[in-house]
Design goal:
The chain is mainly α. The chain has helices spanning 2-17, 28-52, 58-63, 68-78, 84-94, 102-117, 132-148, 151-161, 164-177, 182-193, 195-204, 207-216, 218-232, 254-265, 271-285, 296-304, and strands spanning 235-238, 243-246.
Length: 345
């Protein structure tokens, strides 16, 4: 018994350090030892709690130690001084995946409840590997927090302060978890109302994930196609090279735009039909001349190959000569975006 009490006292020092910048010196081994120590103390507390009831000396000192593993984990997750390698190790310990043992699953549940009560969604939105188990927990935590109160202030605060790539990954995962629920609806309305967040979502997420989102949410599908249209009209056809080129280095390239449309064209209806119909409408507005280099939309249809609404004109060459995203070559100056073209529902 005395040995256990001494361990509790020593661990209290670890717990105090976990919220300071001193954890910058911790490596994966130190994080692993701290978490394992906290889990051991929780198990010991559970076994000895009944025996300790009624003991004035030991009872009060042990009574508050049942959730110290949760407190330690939450503090380390929220401590930006923790190094990247140690943080990855912590995520793997806390979110080992679908085959996690029951104690790990129970810790995840308690950790999520603690973070929700404290309004600390940011704890789980720190940058790190986008592992499935951790990402799902982040998404669930975000949805639970959205159900607790008004979404606007929370989402604006996360967008301003949390790492944006991690926030967007969690937001996308949340929109796929429960597409018809009220919390995802609030999140979707916020995204559609924030042009910078929507543009970042469309730019930074993988094409396959965006296609999945567009398939689940028609409003996001239309917004995504409008964003692709804006990107396409920033490309210009370079006559000497025979390629569509970005007007500025920061603009989306032909290869990336083609890849995004290819992902949409491979999706099942109605997403595939909506993407191809949009390309056909924009191509028709440019004159529907089946000549490469005149309209980026026609060239995209050609690049997608047979069956993509090109009337059998065939696929583009793999050399990248057929660019994506510009408007007609003959139109001087900045091209007019097809933003108001017809978008099939």
């Amino acid at each position: 018994m005395e040995s256990l009490l001494q361990q509790l006292e020593r661990f209290s020092e670890v717990l105090a350090v976990s919220r300071t910048a001193a954890v910058s010196a911790w490596g994966p081994a130190a994080v692993r030892r701290a978490v394992q120590w906290a889990r051991y103390l929780r198990r010991a507390h559970g076994r000895l709690r009944a025996a300790l009831e009624g003991r004035r000396r030991a009872g009060p000192r042990l009574g508050a130690w049942g959730g110290r593993d949760v407190v330690l984990s939450a503090r380390l997750l929220g401590n930006r001084a923790l190094g990247a390698a140690a943080h990855r190790c912590l995520l793997r310990l806390l979110f080992p995946g679908p085959a996690a043992p029951a104690p790990a699953a129970a810790l995840q549940a308690r950790l999520a409840r603690l973070a929700r009560r404290r309004g600390a969604v940011r704890l789980l939105l720190r940058g790190g590997p986008a592992e499935d188990a951790a990402l799902r927990t982040q998404a669930e935590l975000l949805l639970r927090r959205l159900r607790d109160g008004p979404a606007g202030g929370l989402l604006d605060g996360l967008w301003a302060r949390a790492p944006r790539a991690a926030f967007l990954r969690a937001a996308a995962a949340a929109l796929l978890l429960d597409p018809a629920g009220p919390a995802p609806g609030e999140l979707l309305r916020w995204l559609l109302g924030r042009a910078d967040a929507l543009a970042a979502l469309c730019r930074d997420l993988p094409a396959a994930r965006l296609a999945a989102l567009a398939a689940r949410h028609p409003a996001l599908r239309r917004a995504y196609l409008r964003q692709l249209a804006r990107w396409g009209c920033r490309l210009r056809y370079d006559l000497p090279s025979g390629r569509w080129e970005a007007a500025e280095p920061a603009h989306v390239s032909w290869a990336e735009l083609r890849g995004r449309f290819l992902s949409l064209a491979r999706a099942p209806p109605p997403l595939k039909d909506a993407a191809l119909a949009a390309l056909e409408a924009w191509s028709a507005r440019d004159g529907a001349f089946r000549v490469r280099g005149l309209s980026v939309w026609t060239d995209l249809l050609l690049a997608l190959g047979p069956g993509a609404g090109t009337d059998g004109l065939g696929a583009a060459s793999s050399s990248g000569v057929l660019g994506a995203g510009g408007c007609r070559l003959a139109r001087p100056g900045p091209a007019r975006s097809p933003e108001h073209a017809h978008f099939p529902k």
